User: Fold these one by one.
Assistant:
Number 1:
Amino acid sequence: NFSKAHSFYERAVKNGQQSLPSNHSSLQQR
């Protein structure tokens, strides 16, 4: 789910985490 991955990304950003799982790479390609 895109929105689910997006909220995960937003939550990670709020936590100040810049090293995200490989999930994020494929998210950017979309």
Number 2:
Amino acid sequence: MPIILNRSPAFYNSGIKAKLPLKHVVANAVNVSSCIFTETNLRLLQSFLKILFLSFCILCTAGRVNAQLTIKGTVFDSSKKNYVEAVRVESTGGRYAVTDSMGRYVITVAENDSLRFIYLNKPTQKFIVKDIPNINQFDISLHVNVKSRYSILKEVVVYSRHYREDSIENRQVYGDIYNFRKPTIRTSVSPGGAVGADVNEIINMFRFKRNKQLKRFQARLEQQEQDKFVSYRFNKKFVGRITQLQGAELDSFMVRYTPSYEFASMADEITFNKYILNASYAFKIELLKQDAKK
């Protein structure tokens, strides 16, 4: 069979025994390529949209899991009247806080964390963060009895109990003021699980007058609480028994040698008694000098 060479703008189709123009074939080839190209792009676009959607879902899920929450509260003993100091508050996320002299703590945790409280190396059960009803006042009571190291005399014990009760009641009444923090941009989680900025916090950031008033009120309440603590520990009956002062001399001594809150809250029984005793010696020497001048 002879080989036919294509030397014209047409070619030989052995199937239909006819000569087709080359331009028709080229046009058809172009149309087929266009269809293939369009279908390929569509598949790529669908794949890209699927990947984008999955990435968005993963980011939203990660946002929910990593949402940061601030939990605040107070730790009491079994009587629910005495604060427990130096309690370690740990989260499963690795963060921790320690309660202060008023039993208060503040800790930032993730939404999927759990908390536990450790006192004298004894941990409590774990509390799931999602199940905490009020993260701004998560108060707990430990199964321990904490005796005040300042209860030297029976009268002082009674004083201490009243002071504790007044302090607890005051903090319950003015809880929002004591727990006030300068507004900042924080994330919040809606009931549906969406993560976003806390609108109320953003609005409060620009309420400058309100923030200043609340801050001043908070400082005044804290100062009053500190003054009451000093007064209950540095009281007339107790100071009078140590110094043997009475009447106007005792009143003058109480005003002149009232200790600071930092010293009154940190000093142990022996240190505090020595302070009063040494101050009384100095005060009596001054009285003798004044009498000598007369």
